[in-house]
Amino acid sequence: MTAFGYRLPAMSSLLIWALLWEIIGQLDLTFFVPPLSEVVVTLVKILPTPAFLKALYETAYAFLGGVAAAILIGIPVGIMMGKSRLLDELLLPWVNIFLSAPLTALVPVLMVLFGFGMTSIIITTTLFAIWIIILNARVGVMQINRSLIDMARSFGASPLEAFFKIYFWAALPEILGGVRIGIIRAVKGVIIGQLLISIVGFGALFELYSSNFLMGHFWAVLIVLFGLAFTISEFLAYLERRVAYYAAKR
Amino acid sequence: MVMPQIKPAAAVPPVAAPLDSAVSVRNVSKNYGKVEALKDLSLEFPRGELTSLLGPSGCGKTTLLKIIGGLLEPTAGEIEVNGKMVTGPGPDRAFVFQDFALLPWASVIRNVAFGLELRGVPRSEREAIAEKYIRNVGLSGFERSYPHELSGGMRQRVGLARALSVDSQVLLLDEPFSAVDEQNRRKFQEDLLALVRNENKTFIFVTHSIEEAVYVSDQIAILLPRPSRVSEVIRPSGFREKDVENIRRDPEYLDIVDQIWSSLRTYAE
């Protein structure tokens, strides 16, 4: 981006918003928005506390577990759906229903099925992330060049070899896109799970801070969460750019 | 006194000795629902020769090639390759694709070695073989390049090297030069003639270009559409031994091109 002939560094829009935030905070318009500087001070203060580290650990555990399940199940299922017409007809309606379903409303059902512990939170996270991963892997496989499949068959590829050497790589750009969006949805899923199922992790902190009107603390945790999600998503975007050289020429 | 020149006996064609066929297609039919793509088609492909399948678009020549390759099942009839019935793809046949079918995420050398990779040949061994064929098709120095960095002609050379490196007896070429520009196509055709002479493999070559078919073929099978059948088999004899530069000026070459055009012109849209 350039302004007035100068090249602006990446993410300079964030600086403008940070400045605006600080000004509004200093004007003391509402307790809901404390100055950014105050939030940052709070952030530095609470980061090393055991309560925060415990929350971070609990959240990271549920998040990584849920995302891993979503990826490990979602990608193969999506690839299968892209390969098999029958499976596609069977599963696609359900995938679409769950993609648009208000999953939050399902959380009480999960609690009945899987209890009030970590399992339910991980499953909630998975449910938020998996559908878009399935859909993207499916689309990635469906646009694959037919003659690549013929080529693999004619040179004697077994179904398993075709899966790992052709389908996966051919669909990789779409798969990575799906995983990136899925992970962003998983962040929502893990917090909603922690709020609704058992009050642990960042969910518990949000609950605690907001009910005590500790808005500085609330924003501090939100910034940490945003930072983590942003970092992971940028990493995946980087991987996507790594495969972009062949994405357009398949 | 001059020794009387003994005239060699006039070349007598080997009596009734049927040509040794590498591939036999017998009474093959292929239906797509109610549409008959191929009907009761039989054809012999002599060993060590190049046979072209030539015909207007939609005449089922690619379908026939895919059936021979084992990629499609015939509705009826059978294919024999070196005396063995075809039930699916096999190591005795290698395919060259119209759109090259290269792995865009893999380097030239991995693409060329991919057929060997699927056969479980160890890496160092298959890369040594691949390097040899990359050299043979004139792509030395491009081993580590990726397909998108190559021109269309170079990409098809990669496809050709891949098919050659698995050392199959039968090579199936599906309009291999149609996505290649004119100058490169001519170079390819000359290279193909050399390949047929040197490699002692059987080539089955699908094309819709009459000139190309007559230029490169030992035998031309003309397929007519709806439903597809072999209408004619032509074996050019006079100019095959000539220099590649002179073939296109040979009267027989020109006659055959004309003859084929007159039988195909009614099918042109």
- Distance between the terminal alpha carbons of chain B, to the nearest Å? 67 Å
Helix-strand topology string of chain A: EEHHHHHHHHHH
> Which radius of gyration of chain A do the C-alpha atoms yield?
22 Å
| N- and C-termini, Cα separation of chain A | 31 Å
CATH H level, superfamily name of chain A: MetI-like
Question: What's the structural domain tally of chain B?
Answer: 2
CATH superfamily of the largest domain in chain B: P-loop containing nucleotide triphosphate hydrolases
Strand content of chain B: 15-25%
- Major sheet strand order of chain A: 1-2
- CATH architecture of the largest domain in chain B, by name, is 3-Layer(aba) Sandwich
Our Rg estimate of chain B from Cα atoms comes to: 20 Å
* Count of discrete alpha- or pi-helical segments spanning 4 or more residues of chain A: 10
Number of strands of chain B: 10
Rough outline of chain A: globular
Describe the sheet with the most strands of chain A. 2 strands, antiparallel
Number of helices of chain B: 8
Q: What structural category arises from helix and sheet content of chain B?
A: alpha/beta
CATH topology of chain A: MetI-like fold
In total, the number of domains of chain A comes to: 1
**How many strand segments of chain A?**
2
The amount of helix of chain A comes to over 70%
